[in-house]
Amino acid sequence: MNDIKQSLDAVERLIITHLKDNDISETIKRASIYSIEAGGKRFRPTMVLSTLKALGYPLEHGHSTAAAIEMIHTYSLIHDDLPAMDDDDLRRGQPTNHKVFGEATAILAGDNLLTESARVVISDDNLSDDKKIKVLGVLLKNAGQKGMISGQMLDIEGETSPITLDELAQIHNYKTGALIRACIEMACIIGEASDDVTNTLNRYATEVGVLFQIRDDILDVVSNVEELGKNIGSDVSNNKTTYVSEYGLEGAYEQFDTLYETAMDHLKSIETLISVEPLMAILEKLKINL
Ligand code: GRG
C-alpha cells in the first residue's frame, strides 16, 4: 500500500471517529456517517495529501485538513440532492441521505458535517495555532459566500434562462473549483511552500478544477449515450450549457487536452523545487475513462 492510500485510510478513520463522538443524537451520528461511508473518489483529500507529498512534508499533518474538506464536500452533496435543489434519489451508488433519513435529518446531517469539519482541524495536535487559523480561513472562505455557496446560488439562478460560456465558467469556478483550489492552498500553508511554489500550484489548482468539470461534462454525455444506446456525438440532449453543448464532444476533449498540457507545463516549471510526480498523478487520474 502506498503512503497516500495509507493516509486516505487514516483520514477516513479520523472522520468516522470524530462523528461517532456524539452521545446526544444517534440519528445525526448515523445520518452523518451514512453519507461518508457511501464512498466517493476522495479526490479532494487526495489533492491535499499529494500536495504535501510533493512538498516533502509529513502527510499526517494534512490528515485533519483532508478530513475537513471531504466533510464539507459531502455536506454539499447531501444538500445538493435535496428536493429543494437537485432532488436526486441516488448518490455514490446509494440512496441519497434524505431518502433514507428524511429531509429534516438530511439538512441537519449536512449542517453537522460542515460545522464539525472546523472542529476536526481545531482538534489536530500536529498543527500550530497559526496554521490552524490560516487553514480554516482558506477552508471557510472557499466553502462560503466567496466560493461554493455563491457558485451554487449562481447555478440555481442560471437554471431559469440560458447562460453564456463565461457565466458557466464562473459558476464552476466557484461551485466546484473553489474547494479544489482550497485543497492546494491549505496544503501549501501546512507544508510551508515558498511563495513561488504556492503561486504556481494555485494556477495548477485552477486548471485541475476546470479539467474536473470538463471531464464531468464529457462523462455525463458519454454515459448517457451508452445508456440510451445512441450514437456518440449525435445528441447533447438537455438544454443545459456545458462544455460539450458549447464545443461539441470532440471540442470538449480538445479543451481537456490543451488544459492538461498547460497544467503539466506549470508543474514542470517547478520540478527542480518540489517533487511534482504526485501532482502529475492527479492529472493522470483525471484522464482515466475519458
Ligand atoms: C448545496 C451548498 C451546496 C453546494 C452544492 C458541488 C456542489 C455544490 C454540488 C454538486 C453538484 C455536482 C454533481 C457537480 C458536478 C461536479 C461534482 C462536484 C461532482 C461530485 O464530486 P465528485 O465527483 O464526487 O468528487 P465523489 O462522490 O466522488 O466525492
Automatic annotation (TrEMBL):
GO biological process: terpenoid biosynthetic process
GO molecular function annotation: (2E,6E)-farnesyl diphosphate synthase activity; metal ion binding
Alphabetical list of InterPro entries matching this protein: Isoprenoid_synthase_dom_sf, Polyprenyl_synt, Polyprenyl_synt_CS, Prenyl_diphosphate_synthase
Enzyme Commission code: 2.5.1.10
The protein's enzyme class: transferase
A GO term from the CC aspect: cytoplasm
Protein name (database record): Farnesyl diphosphate synthase
Protein species of origin: Aliicoccus persicus
